[in-house]
Amino acid sequence: LVSWHNAGKGKVVFVATDNLWRLRFMRGDYYHAKFWGQAIPFLALSRLLGENKQIQLEAEAERPKEGGLVKVRAGEKLLIHADVKDEFYRPATDPQYKVYLERISAETQPAPTSAPAVGPALGAATAITLTAVAGAPGLFEGFATPELPGRYVIRVEPGKVKLASQVDLLVEPSDLEQRETAMNETLLRNMANESGGKFLTIGDLPALPGMLEGGPLTVIDPKNVELWDRWPFFVLFLLFVGAEWFLRRRFHLI
Questions:
Q1: Using CB atoms within 10 A as the burial measure, which of 22, 165, 202, 242 is most buried?
Q2: How far, in Å, CA of 214 to CA of 90, rounded?
């Protein structure tokens, strides 16, 4: 069992086995060095990448991240996490915590990673209230639903921006057909009326056989037949060739 968690400004990993040396059996350092070669940078790089902030913000969407950018479609629900610590890096004990969803651009193309995401004043942002997670001190969760396409950031209040990370969010235009998958009864009834058909629900299915009118059914089964394989074509071909030969001899053309 290998587990880890944030502690203070860094991370702590606990390896609950003393048998990792078995990874080297008949394999040398192939697996053993790979494990520690990934575990140590995982723990150490958090400070270099700004993951040792006092307030850590994260967002989860149905689509995977691309280059650290969270992507959703307009109208989709977004789950937001906040891991909040006080100035002594102890978990916050407040029942709620507020973050802000800010639209910084109407463009739907990701900005270069080197470009800082600077938005308008706090008054132009939408406040989102996160609720403390039971049994997880300092962890808060909540939902947001951005309605307009564009580039967004999820951040904390201006006075604590330097103490917190932020989430870069790209909201793409929504496909209404995929967004609303419920049955549109009004539209279906209109289509049935215009086409001379009938609108049926699940409850009407037992009566469906009686609605079908009996009668002869004509089925057209087209088949492709090669003319060269048919004897009438061969006879006709011989007639034309023979006629041509006879006329040429008759008028001394050969």
A1: 165
A2: 78
